C-alpha cells in the first residue's frame, strides 16, 4: 500500500508527463501512440518510475524509450516548475508490458475455448 502523498504526487506527474509527451516533445523518434500507464514515486521523492506503453513495432518502442530518456532533463525541469517539492524527482522511464501480456493471455484463452468447442462438437457427433 502506498502513501497518500506519494500517490497524489505520482498522479500529478503522470498527468504532467502525458501532457508533455502529447504537446511539448518534438522528437521524431517519439511515437505518436505513446502513453503513460503509471507513475511510481519513491518514498523519498528522489525518483519517479514512469511506465510507458507504445503501440507499434519493437523498434518504435525502443526509439520512443530512448527519446524520452534523452528528454529526461527537460521533463524533470517541467516537473520542478509545476510541483513545489523540496526535491524534484528524477524521471526513470520503463516500458510497460501489461497490455502485450494481456493480449497474449487473451489469445491463449481464445485458443483454448476454440479447442474445447471443437472437442465438444466431436463428442456430440
TrEMBL record:
Keywords: Cytoplasm, Ribosome biogenesis. The keyword Glycoprotein does not apply. Pfam families: RBFA. One of its GO terms (biological process) is maturation of SSU-rRNA. One of its GO terms (cellular component) is cytosol. Its main location: cytoplasm. It is found in: Cytoplasm. GO terms for molecular function: ribosomal small subunit binding. The keyword Cytoplasm applies. Monomer. Binds 30S ribosomal subunits, but not 50S ribosomal subunits or 70S ribosomes. Belongs to the RbfA family. One of several proteins that assist in the late maturation steps of the functional core of the 30S ribosomal subunit. Associates with free 30S ribosomal subunits (but not with 30S subunits that are part of 70S ribosomes or polysomes). Required for efficient processing of 16S rRNA. May interact with the 5'-terminal helix region of 16S rRNA. This is Ribosome-binding factor A.
Amino acid at each position: 500500500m502506498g502513501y497518500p502523498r506519494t500517490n497524489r504526487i505520482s498522479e500529478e506527474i503522470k498527468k504532467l508527463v502525458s501532457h508533455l509527451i502529447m504537446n511539448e516533445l518534438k522528437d521524431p523518434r517519439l511515437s505518436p501512440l505513446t502513453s503513460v500507464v503509471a507513475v511510481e514515486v519513491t518514498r523519498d521523492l528522489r525518483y519517479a518510475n514512469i511506465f510507458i506503453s507504445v503501440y507499434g513495432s519493437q523498434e518504435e518502442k525502443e526509439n520512443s524509450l530512448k527519446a524520452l530518456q534523452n528528454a529526461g532533463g527537460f521533463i524533470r525541469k517541467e516537473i520542478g516548475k509545476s510541483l513545489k517539492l523540496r526535491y524534484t524527482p528524477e524521471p526513470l522511464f520503463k516500458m510497460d508490458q501489461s497490455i502485450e501480456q494481456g493480449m497474449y493471455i487473451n489469445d491463449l484463452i481464445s485458443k483454448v475455448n476454440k479447442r474445447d468447442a471443437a472437442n465438444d462438437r466431436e463428442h456430440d457427433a
